[in-house]
Amino acid sequence: MENSPEKIVIVGFGWVGQANALALSEMGYAVRYFDPDPPKHHYADKYAIGYERINRLEKVDALDDDATWYIVCVGDRVSEDGVQDTSFIRNALDSLKGLKGGIILRSTILPETLKDLCFDYYVPEFLHEKKAVEECLDPHFFVVGKRKGVRNSPSFFRTWRERAVKTFSGTPEEASYIKYLSNLWNSMRIAFVNEFGDAIREPKSKEDLAAINRVTDFIFGSKQYLRYGRAFGGHCLPKDTRAFARMLRDSGRNSAMLDGTYESNRMHEAKQGKYPNLPEWFSEWLPSEKSGRQALKDLSRAVIRNLKRPGALISKVTKSGKQ
C-alpha cells in the first residue's frame, strides 16, 4: 500500500513482470524493476500511465533491505525435444544471493528442478496474455509454495488471497504441479476438440464450422478451450507440454497422452494454414462471482487510490469521454 514499508523489485520486465508490476502499482505499492534489456511495454494501450509510476533500477540491489521483496519473472526456454533451459532464471536468482530482501519466484519451473534453486516462495502465474494485468489484480488461482523456515509473506499475498477465486498453500513442488496441470489440461482439451472436429468435416466455410460446433457444443457448451478452432500456441502451452512430457520420459514414466497432445496439435497447426477462417480458442479466465463484501472492498480501494492520484483519475475520465 501507499504507506507500506515494503519495496517491490520486479526482476525481469517481460510479459509476466510487467503484469505483476502494473497490478501491484494499481494496488498502491511502490514498484521498481530491474532488467538489463530495454523493455517493450506490452500493455501500454491500457496502462500507459501505470508505466510512468514504475522506474527502472540500474542495479538489482539498489533498494535492498529487510523490507524489500524481489519478484523474479524471468522466463524459461524449452527446446523442440522438450529440454527445459532455466539458465536465465538461475542467473537472476544467483544475482540475489546474500541480499537482505525476500525472493518470490514466479517463473515456470518443472517440479523436480525447484530443489536446486534459491528462493523463499514459489508463486506460479496463471495469466493469459490479453488479460494478464487484470488477472494479476484479481487472480483466478493464487497458489503459494513456501520453503520451510522462511520469513513471513508480504502483505500483498493477503490481498491476492482475498481476491482469488481459488487458493492453495503447500510446497513449491506442489505449486509447480498445479501450474503444469492447469496448462496441460488446457492444451489437451484444445487438441482433443480440434482432432474430433477434424473428424466431422473439413472447415472450408462458416457453415462447416457451425456444423462442427453444433456437435461439440452439445456436449461441451462452448466452454473455454472446448470449442473447435485454431491450434494452441502462445508463450506457454506448447513449451510446457513439451517440457513436462520430456520430464516424464526421462524418468521412465508414461508420457503417451502428452506426446499425443503435442503431435495432434502440430498436425492441426498445419491444417489451419490451409483454413485461415478457423477462430482463435478462448484465452482468458471466465469472470467470477464476487461477494457483496468483496465488491465493496474493491470499490473502497479504487476510490482511495484515485483520491491519492487524482491525475490518473482525470486521465481515465478524459480517455473514457473520447471513446
Structure description:
The protein has helices at residues 15-26, 44-52, 87-94, 132-137, 155-163, 172-200, 206-220, 237-250, 256-272, 292-308, 310-322, and strands at residues 7-11, 31-34, 55-56, 68-72, 77-78, 84-85, 102-105, 121-122, 141-146, 166-170. It is an alpha/beta fold and 323 residues long. The chain folds into 3 domains: 7-170, Rossmann fold (3-Layer(aba) Sandwich); 179-272, N-(1-d-carboxylethyl)-l-norvaline Dehydrogenase, domain 2; 289-323. It has an 8-stranded mixed sheet, with helices on both faces. Helix 10 (292-308) crosses helix 11. It is globular. The model is unreliable at 312-323 (pLDDT under 50).
The CATH topology of the largest domain is Rossmann fold
Which blocks of ≥5 consecutive residues have pLDDT under 50?
312-323
Number of domains: 3
Estimate the mean pLDDT confidence. Answer: 89
Distance between the termini: 31 Å
Report strand %: 5-15%
CATH superfamily of the largest domain: NAD(P)-binding Rossmann-like Domain
CATH class division of the largest domain: Alpha Beta
The largest beta-sheet arranges its strands as: 3-2-1-4-7-8-9-10
The SSE order reads EHEHEEEEHEEHEHEHHHHHH
Q: What is the rounded Rg? A: 21 Å
Structural class from helices and strands?
alpha/beta
Count all strands and give the number. Answer: 10
Backbone shape: globular
